[in-house]
């Protein structure tokens, strides 16, 4: 087989692997969002995605591996949404508000985001070692938001006396609280809450 054919075969194999992983993760998220964490067995995930249980084990190895893959998938999708909004081109205050807007605009309609918070709630309630990946993901959000607050202060659009780290934690806690509330009350109308949150945050942080 010549080098071009070998490269094409490798690309095809990689494409198949990425496709199967994506379909397995989507199936896992759907099961968790619809039926809870207990329903997301490797056998059920494989059946829903049209693959074998063995492939799920091969791809993720363990429940923690699956959860870490789901978190990475969600983070990548959020990054794509944030990049599409061009937050880096906005001043610090507008970037913070843009982050909140994107998160809340997608929260009600995104089944994978719902699955993420179902998993997180279970890990916290069970005092499970699976809390660690969630803690790391939330720390990443805190660091990102803190950087936006500091940028806004340097630009003069966010109050200079504001504690940037505390403000980042407060915004993260707001998003976490609303996400949890949506699990308790799936029929909650997020649109007026989104508008009120953005107005309140602007009034609180603006210079």
TrEMBL record:
It comes from the Bacteria. The keyword Amino-acid biosynthesis does not apply. Keywords: DNA-binding, Repressor, Transcription, Transcription regulation. Gene3D superfamilies: Tetracycline Repressor, domain 2. InterPro entries: BetI_C, Homeodomain-like_sf, HTH-type_TetR-like_transc_reg, HTH_TetR, Tet_transcr_reg_TetR-rel_C_sf. The lineage of its organism: Bacteria, Pseudomonadati, Pseudomonadota, Alphaproteobacteria, Caulobacterales. This is TetR/AcrR family transcriptional regulator. It comes from Caulobacter segnis. Residues 18-78 form the HTH tetR-type domain. Residues 41-60 bind DNA. PROSITE patterns: HTH_TETR_2.
């Amino acid at each position: 087989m010549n080098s071009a054919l070998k490269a094409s075969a490798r690309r095809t194999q990689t494409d198949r692997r990425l496709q199967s992983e994506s379909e397995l993760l989507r199936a896992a998220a759907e099961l968790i969002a619809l039926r809870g964490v207990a329903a997301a067995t490797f056998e059920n995930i494989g059946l829903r995605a049209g693959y074998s249980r063995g492939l799920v084990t091969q791809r993720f190895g363990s429940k923690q591996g699956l959860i870490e893959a789901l978190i990475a998938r969600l983070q990548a999708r959020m990054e794509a949404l944030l990049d599409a909004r061009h937050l880096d081109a906005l001043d610090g205050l507008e970037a913070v508000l843009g982050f909140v807007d994107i998160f809340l605009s997608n929260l009600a309609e995104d089944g994978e985001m719902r699955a993420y918070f179902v998993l997180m709630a279970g890990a916290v309630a069970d005092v499970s070692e699976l809390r660690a990946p969630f803690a790391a993901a939330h720390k990443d959000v805190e660091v990102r938001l803190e950087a936006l607050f500091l940028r806004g202060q340097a630009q003069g659009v966010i109050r200079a006396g504001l504690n940037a780290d505390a403000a980042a934690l407060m915004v993260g806690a707001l998003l976490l609280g609303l996400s949890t509330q949506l699990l308790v009350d799936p029929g909650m109308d997020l649109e007026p809450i989104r508008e009120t949150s953005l107005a309140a945050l602007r009034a609180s942080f603006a210079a």
